[in-house]
Amino acid sequence: MNNELDFFKTLVEKAKEISLTERERSKLFSAVDSFIERNPIQLENFVEKPKADVGFTHPRFFKRDFYHFSYFQMHGFRTVGALLLLAVFGTGTSFAAQGAVPGDILYPIKVNINEGIKAALLSGVERSEFDVSLIKTRIEEAKTLAVRNELSDKKQAEITTRIDTYVSQVQDNLENLTEKGDLMAAFEISSKLEATLEESEVKSSEPTSDPLTTEQAVIVEKIVKGPRKISTQVREETENKIYTLQTNDEDTLAIAQTKFESVKKSLGEIEEKIFIGLGASAETSTMAATTLETTEVTETLDTDVAIVTPTPVTSLAKTKTVVATDSDTEFADDTELSLPYVYELLRQGEIMMANKEYNEAFRLFREAYSMTELIKTRFELEGIDVSSELEKIMSDLESAVLKIDTTTGIGKSVQPVKGQATIIDALDIKSRINP
Amino acid sequence: MDKDFEQEYLETYKQNADAVFRYCYLRVSDRDLAKDLAQEAFMKVWQYASQGKKILNVRAFIYTTAQNLIIDQYRKKKPSSLDNLMEQGFDVGVEIGQSLMDKIDGEKALALLGSVPEKYRDAIYLQYVEGLSIKEIAEITSESENNISVRIHRGLQKLRSILRDQHE
Q1: A36 CB near a chain B CB, below 8 Å?
Q2: Mean pLDDT in chain B?
Q3: In a domain? residue A30
């Protein structure tokens, strides 16, 4: 043996010589086969028995049951879950169980079999996506029960516990993904988790598309509120980790771009609220806006002349945007919550993107996103009457448009499409408000 | 549908029977006993799985079961094992003839591995001969993956040292 490699080669070859003879193999196979035949699968042990008087399954038990299928997962039993399901309940039952809600006799089949099998067959990103989809399903179930006035404390607790379990599983997976450096996947999942809970959110103070009375909405709101808050924390923590890692690679670019799109979407929602407000007092608002436009342009030109190079965003927060308003509300006085600040963050972010400083762009877009979320929260939580704030918003938009026009010259030092998009957004709002 | 499960398990058996038998054989140095232990390991694992109990990695679980059976066997009677293979010689059950030189080299290789302390040897054997992952070995031996990595590293160092001595 000349070296280590030879040694291992010889070792493996030699070891592999130690094998069963054909006769022995056949004999052993027959013995194992007979044993299997005498000891068939005890299917009832694979299925959680619904408890007669309690429609609640503790998540630990629930989770453990899923792993009963792990053996089959490891060995290519990709279809085995479905087969087992067929064996036990037949397709009809499985399908019928899909519409079950807590308290229904088929509900344990839905969560422990239909969903359980699927969950056991998934891992990594796919598993988290599935967990997120289950959160949505549980909230829909809560809404269904609420409409029927059947959302008892016990059922609320069951749904809440299940949602908490899913959120916790997603959190664990996010940690794994960031540890492994799969930042894009972590970013997408954390955003998806938050977006899903945001979409499913019910605000008893606001009209919703769900057929819920205010009392019913209050109960559902209570269920969703906690996870919704956690989802934002999870998303922020994940983004902090991503930013801290400072990879500044293609993934960071994609992440920054996605964040930019999120800000735009959020701005669109604010815009929608503005127009709802506008509809309430269209004529007076338009007149007010027109008047403001004249004074605004002059003042802005005098004070906010050309910011050509990126300004540190910390100082931007202190940049007093010129506003012509007699409003003394907290919202109007809060410069950091002004829309021009959001636009300025976007503009700075775009410059960073053009300079391939993706991490910094990401940070700026994150801040812009937080701003838009705060603005939306103000609208929602403080019940600000949008129409009464319209003058302020209009003036903010005016100065934003002007600032961008006078500084960058529309996409001069930024990526043309994105730069224009930001400005066009602002111009579009302006033109729609004041055609 | 039970038949599908059974077929899959029998397939698992076919894929791993030789390796599990070899694992047992290298520890008990008794061909018949190794066959019995391998067979019993497969049966016990089926019994366990068929009851719906948790198995994360069936291959590792079969090895673990085999190992437990071997330990039981040790308790019953002190076996001859890889440690004294060199002294006793053993029937490798080769059906196709090998050259004498190959056979000597192969036996020597096994004997050299046998001279590495058991805890290192098992880890090296499972990884290099049976191709198990560190995670699987950790599962079988109830050790942490980190410990297994360390064992393999140290075992290899010892092997290198032995090989160097042999060469000189």
Answers
A1: yes
A2: 76
A3: no
How does pLDDT run across A124-167, given as a tens digit for each residue? 888 899 999 999 999 999 988 988 888 888 899 989 999 999 99
Domains of chain B: 1-79 (1.10.1740)
Confidence bin at B110 (pLDDT 50/70/90): confident
B62 touches chain A (CB under 8 A): no
* Cα-trace Rg, chain B: 17
How many domains is chain A partitioned into structurally?
Answer: 2
Average pLDDT, chain A: 68
Instruction: Of A26-30, A43-47, A283-287, B35-39, give the lowest mean pLDDT range.
Output: A283-287
Q: Which pLDDT score, from 0 to 100, does residue A430 have?
A: 46
Enumerate residues 76 to 115 of chain A having a beta carbon within 8 A of any beta carbon in chain B.
76-77, 80, 83-84, 86-87
* Cα–Cα distance for residue pair A165/A59, rounded to 1 Å: 7
Q: Does B105 lie at the interface with A, CB-CB under 8 angstroms?
A: yes
Tokens of A215: 């009392």
| Residue (of A84, A76, A111) closest to A97 by Cα position | A111
ipTM of the complex: 0.71
Query: What pTM, to 2 d.p., does this model score?
Result: 0.45
| Chain A residues inside the 8 Å CB shell of B47 | 39
Which residue is closest to B160 within chain A, CA to CA?
Answer: A4
- Residue from the list A17, A29, A33 with its beta carbon closest to the beta carbon of B106: A17
**Partner-chain residue, chosen from A7, A39, A71, that has the shortest CB–CB distance to B47:** A39
Q: Tell me if chain B has a CB within 8 Å of the CB of A305.
A: no
Q: Are residues A172 and A286 in the same domain?
A: no
Minimal CA separation from B64 to chain A, in Å: 15
Separation CA A120–CA A64 (nearest Å): 10
A12 neighbourhood in chain B, CB within 8 Å: 128-129
Examine the fold and report which residue of A223, A246, A269 is the final residue of a domain before the chain moves on. A246
pLDDT of residue A286: 37
The residue type at A380: E
Averaged pLDDT, A112-122? 77
A323 vs A343: CA distance, rounded Å: 15
CB contact under 8 A, B54 and A42: no
DSSP output for A133-173: HHHHHHHHHHHHHHHTT---HHHHHHHHHHHHHHHHHHHHH
Closest CA in chain B for residue A73: B56
